[in-house]
Every structure is written in C-alpha cells, then in structure tokens.
Amino acid sequence: MPKTENEKGFVDVVNGRYKPKGVFHILEANQPIFNKDTGKLVGITNPRDMTYIHSYGGEAPFFEGLGKGKLIASRCDNDKCNTKGSIYQPFRIYCPDCLRKNTIIDMTDLAKTTAKIHSYIITHRSGAFNSLPIPIKFINVEFEGVVTILMSVLAVGEPEIDKRVVPIFNTKAPTYTITDLRFVVEGTSESELPEGFTF
Ligand SMILES: [Zn+2]
Any bridge partners for residue 12, and if so which? Predict the structure, then answer.
C-alpha cells in the first residue's frame, strides 16, 4: 500500500549533520502460517517496513549529474601516477593505482559520440523490488578513452556486440539512483524514450 506523507522518513543535512524527520520504521501486523492439511500452526510472516539512509559520500556528484542529463566520470591527474589520465566510468572517487583523489569530469559528450555495447545479457526473471520492464537488456558499455566498462540497461532497441548506443537520462522526475541512466540504440527518436527520459 502506498504510504501517506505521515508514514515516510525524510532527511536533510543541516550544519554538517543528518537531521531525520518523520517515520523510519513502520510496524505491520504479522500473519500466522497454518498447515492446511493438519490445521496446525507452522510459523508466522514477519513484515518489516524500514527506510534506510543511504549516504552517497564522494559519489554524490555522479547521481546528481544524471538528473541534469550529465554523465559524470573521474580521472587521475596525478603527475607521479603511472596511469595518469585514466578515466573511470563507473565513477571512482580515488585512483586505484596511486590512491589520490580523482578529478571529477563531465563525459556526457564522449558517451554520446563513442558509447558501444561491449557485451550484454537478457534476463527474463528479476529479483525482488525490480522496477525495470522485463525482459531487462543489461549491457556492458565501453567508451573511447575510458579504462573501465559501465553496466547499464538498454531501454530501446536490440543489443548486439559493438552496436553504437547513446545515454538517456531521467531528467523530468529524477530518482537520484542508477536507474536514472539508461541507453538506447543510436538513431532512436525522442518519442520512443521511456517516460521522463531525455537525451
Ligand atoms: Zn593515479
């Protein structure tokens, strides 16, 4: 059942501290489990409704960027690092080689012009809490000059290795989660995009 505003938890950061407001744990009535053959009790259900506070820390710029139609990556700019200039997507806060903090960069244009499918997998059965339409076309995306591969979802078109794809973003009602970013095959028109998504 959808929750009312009085049954939700909200969090702000004020003066550098988390300030929770509202309800974060909702108790629901449990139900007995009976064996229909014997009429005997065998157990109970255990409903739990909890709201987690998930801090993004140094990865927050990546998730904030998605809602603005931007694909944010990071790059090592340390002169003393053997892998200086490496671009990381998924976003890495620190360089894995020199452990220095990476520079935050905008790679939206690079993604629009060079993204292609490295490999893919189509799944017809999802786990709990899935919000994506089934079947889900998971794609591993490679970008020119990026040293890592990004896992995402192909929202429009059929996956094929080396096929060119372009990113789309949930800019109209961002959820600030990874599902705000998806891909479509090159040449897809704006009218084919899922609701709320733009190029
Ligand atoms: Zn480095």
Answer: 19
Eight-state DSSP code of residue 162: T
101 Cα: distance to centroid of ligand 1 (angstroms): 8
Confidence class of residue 102 from pLDDT cuts 50, 70 and 90? very high
Token couple for 146: 């990026």
Tokens 């629009």 label which residue?
112
User: Of the ranges 1-10, 68-77, 148-157, which one carries the lowest mean pLDDT score?
Assistant: 1-10
Peptide bond before residue 20 is cis, with ω within 30 degrees of 0: no
Residue 27 pairs in a beta bridge with 48
Q: What are phi and psi of 139, to 5 degrees?
A: -125, 145
Measure 76 CA to ligand 1 centroid, in angstroms: 5
Q: What distance in angstroms lies between residue 78's CA and the mean position of ligand 1's atoms?
A: 6
Distance in Å, CA 100 to ligand 1 centroid: 6
Query: pLDDT value at position 1?
Result: 63
14: part of which helix (H) or strand (E)?
strand 9-14
* Ligand 1 center from residue 81 Cα (angstroms): 5
Say how many Å lie between the CA of residue 166 and the centre of ligand 1.
28
Residue 4 vs residue 167, higher pLDDT:
167
